[in-house]
Amino acid sequence: MLSLRTFYLFLLLFLIITSTACTHIGINESNSLFINRYTEYMLGNIPEQYADIKNPLPVSKENISEGKNLYQTQCMMCHGVLGEGNGPIGELLVPQPANLTLTRRLPIATDAFLFWTLSEGGQLFNTAMPAFGERLSDKEIWQLSLYINSGFTI
Ligand code: HEC
Questions:
Q1: Which end of the chain is more exposed for a tag (fewer CB within 10 A), N or C?
Q2: CB-ligand 1 contact for 67 (6 Å cutoff)
Q3: Do residues 122 and 49 share a domain?
Q4: Under 8 Å CB-to-CB from 135, ≥6 apart: which residues?
Q5: pLDDT of residue 31 exceeding 60
């Protein structure tokens, strides 16, 4: 029979191993990927109005360059010039702003994911990501999505 003392020792060992493992893969680090947003999206916990929504705008030079102008005034200070999450304000935040050059390559970065994230921001998760749904028009949010998807070009 395990004594209570041995049980507690095992429990302690287990907690130490799991917490160091988390640090090892970066989950507890301030600049690690912010996974709560991905989890919520994958569980389908986003408001119905965003589910399966598609970008109605054509991928035109005009829309992408409008997106770029918006990005420079609304996002760059946090997400950085090339979207890498390293803007001057962004570097001070925990969690840090996402690296959008990485985000755009993930299968999760659908139109719905981007529109929901930009509209509602980080209120749900207590992060500094602002909710742009009230500040910007739908068209502007879609233009920003096109700019992110373009890989920060033009
Ligand atoms: C005040 C700083 C700040 C500003 C300004 C800001 N963001 Fe963010 N953003 C964050 C932070 C912090 C996160 C990570 C936490 C989160 O997802 O809520 C984030 C996350 C994101 C994500 C989620 C990406 C992922 O992989 O999880 C997207 C997309 C995004 N931002 C786009 C934008 C766009 C586009 C703008 C401008 C319209 C913008 N952000 C402006 C701080 C900011």
A1: N
A2: no
A3: yes
A4: 74
A5: no
